[in-house]
Amino acid sequence: MGGRGSVRDAVVLITGASSGIGRATALAFAADGARLVLASRSGEALAEVERDCRARGGQVLVVPTDITDPAAVERLARLAVRRFGRIDVWVEGVAVGIAGPLGSESVDEIRRLVDTNVFGTVLCARAALATFRAQGDGILVVVGSLLSLLPNPMVPLYSMTKFAVRGLALNLQQAVAGHPRIRVCLVLPGPVDTPFFERAANHTGHQLRAIPPAYAPERLAAAILACARRPRRLVTTGVVAHLALVAHRVAPHTTESLVARWSAAFLTKPASAAPGPGSLFDPPPTGAVHGGHRRGRLRRRLGERLGIAQARRGERARVARDGNSRIR
Prior knowledge:
Elements: E1 11-15, H1 20-31, E2 35-39, H2 43-55, E3 59-62, H3 70-84, E4 89-92, E5 98-99, H4 107-135, E6 138-143, H5 156-175, E7 182-187, H6 196-199, E8 201-202, E9 206-208, H7 217-229, E10 234-235, H8 239-250, H9 252-266, E11 268-272, H10 297-327
Parallel strand pairs: 1-2, 1-4, 2-3, 4-6, 5-8, 6-7, 7-10
Antiparallel strand pairs: 9-11
Helix pairs in contact: 1-2, 1-7, 3-4, 4-5, 7-10, 8-9
InterPro entries: KR_dom (IPR057326), NAD(P)-bd_dom_sf (IPR036291), Sc_DH/Rdtase_CS (IPR020904), SDR_fam (IPR002347)
GO cellular component, one term: membrane
Region (Disordered): 275-295
């Protein structure tokens, strides 16, 4: 990369880059001068992100990819290396969801969910670590969920897949423990204000929403950027998410019960909605960073600015550390 802890000129591959956390992460890395490889199913949505990243000064390679296809994932890694010579950071951010009690979904929806969230994540992790071993270093950032620790009975299958993703990340961390230049980071977001909820398969009978208090995607992007600069084993963001992790260590049964009741109760809106598969099978042609679930213009602006400020503060801290090291 561009220097110890710097992402300038680093080659960063991001899956799920067309929307939500992935899109916010792409914009954050572009603003810091990274060279980007952006992947998602929709080429049209990726073109939007490519334009925005180039406007921030980033070099961009767009590779429309369905991560459930082994050949497509291998092609993604191959094209990234062919274009930029290496991959410094691989951000695995793809996720789809199903909301509704167990049994309300179709078998095809279950297969698609597991294929994307579990099988696709495995394929990407394999490709990332193979590339890192060949070049001698690299950072894999796996975006999981607090629902890999805490239950929500309205999204049991989604939560199940995130338990699997967390299990994979924990095992990979041990697998690379003897290689100090290859790191695996696990990011566990709490509720985030993204379009994920409108695009999930929905069998609840009601419209979905981000469980309050939903955080700005820019804050998760800052956490991912921090992992690229200074890898950490596990990262989350926001006071509520940190409190939930601490509470779960102290009183797991009570915390699981409270979170399950809260999250199930506030996942839906009063307005009704017809059942449907969302974007499980067909990607939307456009993407967005935000889902519009945070009330109030001031709160939205503060969350977005806080995320951007956290990203910039991390870079300033890195520069200060490097300067102090040179003085010594």
